[in-house]
């Protein structure tokens, strides 16, 4: 709380003493941008900051998986690598490498979890982004224009909501190739955008009647610009929060469909298919096999949810610094 | 205002033009209707008025008489379920009612601009006030951002915002209502419009700020020679500002004349009632004069004169037939069977 901006309290300005030419110290005010204010509020949300730390850690793991000096193999291809070879750096001893144990075939779990992080995070973030993109565009246009445009777009949205999720997913997986990353991402986006569209629409329905929207039209601003520049920042808070929560649910659902066998397949590793493979592990006493990928999954989902919570508070313009 | 952004030569030539009859804006038979569940509401039903350059026209009436809808119609900001059902709005020889949305967008904020009633909500909370005024400039003129900013600072100074260089970086929530209304006025005047529509510009402000804002609009009218369409229910504001007055009731003009004619010798019983209901000093202890009854529902207007049920001079014909707007000897006009 040492930040001078926080000491000032309820007002979104910070007093900064400057020395003008006359020599008399003059108090001027420093304006903080909305972004800075949001960051100040977010930073004080402890669980959210912990969540950021966890996600950053997972992203680092995911990225390191592809660095040959650290993880010189694909997730299940361990025996192509000679552990005794000299090119293992001293810091990365075999102990580190087998820290979390192996599966039944002796493939190390560290490697699988790191490669799994790539899939889980990619699916979670990319599908959530696409979902938000489609949802906001549809919802914004429907809500802003209203009338028959709204009716048509919301009927289409309704049709998408009636599609049964699992059968469609299995069908698509068979049509476009099982376990294809982009098929899964596409399916997630297709099934989830209607929710975001309804959320964005409800924001726009109230925003379009705001006087500042009319005032913008009165100075000659085009509808497109009003929708995407003037109103979008005002509508973004629920969308950002929902999108964050979508990341978490996509990661979980992706794991679930892997588990059911419709998702990512060997030789790719995902947290879901490690768990699926590990079903036999517990009965054999190999408790680590399911436990560590499970912990990675739970930690990530929890972290994303905390971040969503923190963002919800931080993006509330009415809340004080 | 010498630093105001320069329009193209063609646009400047166009801005010299007036209607053939010498007016800047000539509205005839304007009809704006709204479709509702219970039927069509004729919010504005055949309104006529005209404005010469630099002139101020006051439009007066109770809530729901169609004042605001009239102003929004001129701006072509009527949204479904409302629509402009008829009439002509001749502005510089072109009918605003017939322009495409794109052409209209070029006029809004440039040649015609508007000040809204609610300064507290008319500014976007997520952008700085300077940004919003700059946008009004850059939407219509090809200027560099630094130029637009310099002009914005100049405008802020003109409308009396202290330390404008710093205030342009403020967000709306950093400003008081009076300051925000000044920002709105700066935005409306950014491109020196020829017609300024002020929809109850002082209603949401307290009395001292009201006086300052009115003084400011008066001042700018002289400096910029802007014609002003002043929508208000405050007779005091009209007396202060207007050259001509239009009194509206249930979507129709019931009286029209110079400010002196209307305020000194009101013709229509509704105008008389409006003027009588203003409390005056020394009236303490007596009951406030009011017009009995309420405005009839726009869905269920009486067959004859819509004011007949409340009128102290009501005659048999009033309940049967709607009176025409009759021009009187002194040049004013009233819609009443008494004349």
Describe this structure in words.
The complex is a heterodimer of chains A (321) and B (339). Helix content of chain A is 67%, strand content 4%. Chain A contains 13 helices and two strands, in the order αββαααααααααααα. Chain A has helices at 4-7, 34-43, 46-64, 94-97, 109-145, 147-162, 165-176, 181-207, 211-218, 223-259, 271-277, 279-283, 287-314; strands at 13-18, 26-31. Chain A has a two-stranded antiparallel sheet with strand order 1-2. In chain A, strand 1 (13-18) and strand 2 (26-31) form a beta hairpin. Chain A is globular, with a radius of gyration of 25 Å. The relative contact order of chain A is 0.15. Chain B has 339 residues and is an alpha/beta fold. Chain B has an eight-stranded mixed beta sheet, sandwiched between helices. In chain B, strands 2-1-4-5 form a four-stranded antiparallel beta sheet. In chain B, helix 8 links the parallel strand 7 and strand 8 (227-232). In chain B, helix 5 (145-158) packs across helix 7 (177-189) and helix 7 runs parallel beside helix 8 (207-224). The mean pLDDT of chain B is 84. Classes of the chains: A mainly alpha (321), B alpha/beta (339). The A-B interface holds A 12-13, 28-29, 31, 34, 146-147, 210-212, 214-222, 230, 233-234, 317 and B 75, 77, 79-80, 105-110, 113-114, 116-118, 121-128, 135-136, 139-140, 166, 169-171, 173-174, 184, 187-188, 190.
Beginning-to-end CA distance, first to last residue of chain B:
47 Å
- Assembly type of the shown chains? heterodimer
The low-confidence runs of chain A, each spanning 5 or more residues with pLDDT under 50, are 1-26, 79-93
**Could you tell me the number of beta strands of chain A?**
2
Task: Order the strands across the largest sheet of chain A as they lie in space.
Answer: 1-2
Largest interface: A-B, 24 and 37 residues
What portion of residues of chain B belong to β-strands? 15-25%
Structural Rg of chain A: 25 Å
Shape label of chain B: globular
**Class based on secondary structure composition and strand pairing of chain A:** mainly alpha
